[in-house]
Amino acid sequence: MAIKKSELYSSLWASCDELRGGMDASQYKDYVLVLLFIKYVSDKYAGQPYAPITIPEGASFSDMVKLKGKADIGDQINKKIVGPLKDTNKLFDVPDFNDDSKLGSGKEKVDRLTNLIGIFENPALDFSKNRADGDDILGDAYEYLMRHFATESGKSKGQFYTPAEVSRVIAQVIGIRRSKPTAQTTVYDPTCGSGSLLLKVADEAGAPVTLYGQEKDVPTSALARMNFILHDFPTAAVHRGPTLTNPHWVVDGQLKTFDFVVANPPFSDKRWSTGMTPEEDPFKRFDGFGIPPDKQGDYAYLLHIVRSLRSSGPEGTGRGACILPHGVLFRGNAEAEIRKNLLQRGLIEGIIGLPPNLFYGTGIPACIVVLNKRDAKPKQGLFLVDASAGFAKDGPKNRLRAQDIHKIVDVFTRRLTVPRYSRFVPWEEIEKNDFNLNLPRYIDSQLPEDIQDLPGHLKGGIPQADVDALARYWEVCPGLRDALFAPLRAGYVSLATEASATRATIAEHPEFVTFAEGMRAHFEAWATKIAPVLEGAGGVPSAGAGGGGSAATAYATVTKPKGGKAAVAEGNLPLPLGEDAKTGASSASASAASSALVPRPKELVATVSEDLLHHYEGKPLVDAYAVYQHFMDFWAATMQDDAYLLAAEGWKATVTPLYKAGRGGAQKEVGWTCELVPKELVIARFLSDAQARLDKQSTELDALSAKLAELEEEHGGEEGLLSELEKVNAANAKARLKEIGKDKNAKEEAEVLRAYLDLSEHESAKKKLVKQMAAELDDAARQRTEKLTTAEVKTLVVHDKWLGTLRRAVEGELDRVSQELTRRVKELGERYEAPLPELSARVEALEAKVRGHLQAMGLSW
Fold first, then answer.
1. Is the pLDDT of residue 779 over 80?
2. What is the pLDDT of residues 135-170, one digit of tens each?
3. pLDDT-derived band of residue 371, with 50, 70 and 90 as boundaries?
């Protein structure tokens, strides 16, 4: 069976346990990642002529395995394995596998390296077979490890990795796929770190592109080189060295220019000018803009990007994006002048404000500055997005969710104006603010204050304005408003029902019932449409199958509205309609893909998620992005592993026995499992009668156990009729009953003992029956699973497992709608339930009561 992604990740992460303690994560990551790389290239390229990576004779992973347990294992790995690989391919500097200070000495080092090799020796980690036809499962694993290493490395050593979620945002907002890239399309990252940002852009391109990078840190540049190879970009060019003082990519004495440039440079680099004289910069990066402050290098990197971008070329090129701290938006003096010059030349296309604490090197909030050099000209204004509130907590860091990424990209690429989130700012307003781009000046992202109504508190009654604020509910269920609120006086209403009945009033109202039924029917319509796509997940790909890659790219070009006037209500953003504004070609959607098989997991998730999001576009009350997030969460937790199993094995329900160690170390079978089709699904669809009979007996068993416990509770304790028993059980009860015989004085005790024994006997018999029936049902489920046809497997996986889970998630969204309305209605009712005079009267009554008690106690008030 092909290894699941989640199992692969956990296996690789387990390898880190062999190294923890001797060094920190910033060091042991190098050993683990190098070993992962050697295993991968050995599996993929060993013995293949003309491979992009040459595996020297005696330097493969299998040769490394032969070194296990040898006293000089570390020295041998250096000399026989990593050394020849490095020299032959001119790859990277590697950590010293014979370093006693990190790996220990003597037997400790031998055992540590032997165990580490053993983890990668697992047959399930045959990387030549665990690639799902174009899906970089190993590349993803490499990213997974780097993310965890970055988390453990701490603030000072985690900068080598740009969070994948931020990289995806950048890859999409620069619009590389819309430019129709080719192999000649160039992408450059001047501070490429481990290469993750470049790779996300390459993945978004949807076509072969040429990658260039530069990284000053030697170990990190080695990570990048390995990362590119693991992602099937063995020809990506990475150069070592400081980009600002010694840029490598130079043509005829000038900086080489690229179609797209992306970067996540070190924030506020205080040593950016070390080794250079900015006023004499031979590449004229600061000419016409200004020289950044000596201790603040953010604009130095941004200006390097500007000079590195092409100003002409194919449509859509000449674009870039850079991650910078928020300070670049509002800091004064030299930076203010640079910012003004960039804006006046029309080089900055937009700003995206990100949540705080996303990055591993710092907790400060950052922004993405989007550049456009090809179309640089005085603009009507600037498009700004404040996405600072859209994130989820993930351990010590914050993380952009799939829905946050999608919303940012949708809003930015379509120039949508969303209250408290985004807007197009006219040029005049920017000039009026002296080119200060601090986002709060232009976007008030704070939620409106929940204002307390003084007349409502004085006289009682819920303000009509608060009820009107719930207009989105009344638009769907206009009669529900009258069911919840009754007129009180001009401008004020009261609750028409008891507060405790609010939830039921909403859920049972005919209009809300109709709405809920409509939403359920809406989901079923999508399920019917998408099922053929899902059922093709394990088949053979057809030409044109696939589903794009993202919100920005799964749909075609969108015409930019003049002046950024497009506006939508908050919550549900309109999504692309799937038609190219220029060609009229249909986008990749489930309806188009249903006639073609989509075997690749990444294409499958893109196709299905985009179609689901599009299906809920503009639907009232239910947030399309929340539905999308449910799918993406389910994909990450379950469906992704299923898709990779299907891509490797097809629609097969493989039964796997479960074992545990028995006596003498022998393996004893204790059950079975089926990763693709859980036994619960087989039982529910094919053996429901047997399950119902088992449930009935289990219910009866629970009732007997409850009666037995009740009897013990009633007659236990020191004074109870069962107190003579050292321990209450059947054996002791029988012995005690025999002991008291026909003693007339113990008649009541004997009756209790007989009742206990009778219940105990029935419980034991019922337990035996339930155990037998459960075993028979389990055996029947196994036999039925082993006989499942392809059609049955598809039904169980697609309809019962996948769509069934999503159906329950959408049902949860309907519950959320009613819960939110219930919460707000009850909140308003409780807030204005009692007017001030009534509250004052209550206080006076309580004071009088307390005074009376004190006087009765002989105390004065």
1. yes
2. 455 556 666 776 666 666 554 444 556 888 999 999
3. very high
185 falls within a domain: no
Its pTM stands at 0.83
Q: Of 263, 247, 343, nearest to 298 (Cα)?
A: 263
321 and 170 Cβ atoms separated by less than 8 Å: yes
Q: d(Cα 46, Cα 56) in Å, to the nearest integer?
A: 8
Fill in the amino acid letter for 32.
V
Q: Across the strands, what pairs with 493?
A: 462, 487
Cβ–Cβ under 8 Å, residues 352 and 367: yes
Q: What percent of the chain has pLDDT over 70?
A: 84
8 Å CB contact between 42 and 85: no
User: Coil, helix or strand for 253?
Assistant: coil
Q: How far is CA 832 from the centre of its chain?
A: 41
Pairwise CA distance, residues 273 & 295, whole Å: 9
| Closest by Cα among 512, 464, 381 to 822 | 512
User: Is the pLDDT score of 207 beyond 60?
Assistant: yes
Strands (E), 219-344: 237-240, 250-251, 254-255, 260-263, 319-325
pLDDT digits (tens, 9 = 90+) for 839-854: 788 888 888 888 888 8
Judge contact between 594 and 533, C-beta under 8 A. Answer: yes
pLDDT category at 364 given cuts 50, 70, 90 is: confident
Mean pLDDT for the stretch of residues 57-77: 94
Half-sphere exposure of 687 (CA within 13 A, CB side): 21
Note whether 599 and 542 are within 8 A (CB): no
Within a domain: 345: no
Give the count of alpha carbons within 13 A of 234, CB side only.
Answer: 14
> Distance between CA atoms of 161 and 258, rounded to whole angstroms?
23
Q: What is the DSSP string of 97-163?
A: TT-HHHH-STHHHHHHHHHHHHHHT-GGG-TTT--BTTB-HHHHHHHHHHHHHHHHH-TTT-TT---
Distance of CA 567 to the CA centre of its chain: 28
Contacts of 165 by beta carbon, 8 Å cutoff, 6+ apart: 358, 399, 400, 401, 404, 405
Helix axis angle for 218-230 and 137-153, nearest 10°, is: 150
Reference 349, options 329, 369, 322, 374; nearest CA is 369
Both 739 and 687 in one domain: the answer is: yes
539 is a domain residue = yes
Q: So what's the pLDDT on residue 140?
A: 66
C-alpha distance from residue 397 to each of 160, 204, 385, 782 (Å): 16, 25, 22, 43
Regarding whether 494 and 606 lie in a shared domain, the answer is yes
CATH at residue 131: 1.20.1260.30
Question: How remote is the C-alpha of 671 from its chain's centroid?
Answer: 33
3-state DSSP call for residue 492?
Answer: strand
The verdict on 701 and 843 lying in the same domain is no
Q: Among the residues of 415-509, which ranges form H helices?
A: 427-432, 454-459, 464-468, 471-476, 478-484, 502-508
- Token readout for 118 is 């053993």
pLDDT for 134: 46
* Pair (124, 82) in one structural domain: yes
Residues of the domain holding 461: 455-546+596-647+810-861
Same domain, 604 and 703: no
Instruction: Tell which residue, 393, 345, 387, has the closest CA to residue 367.
Output: 387
Q: Which residue has the tokens 């294409």?
A: 603
When mean pLDDT is compared across 207-211, 397-401, 752-756, the lowest value belongs to 752-756
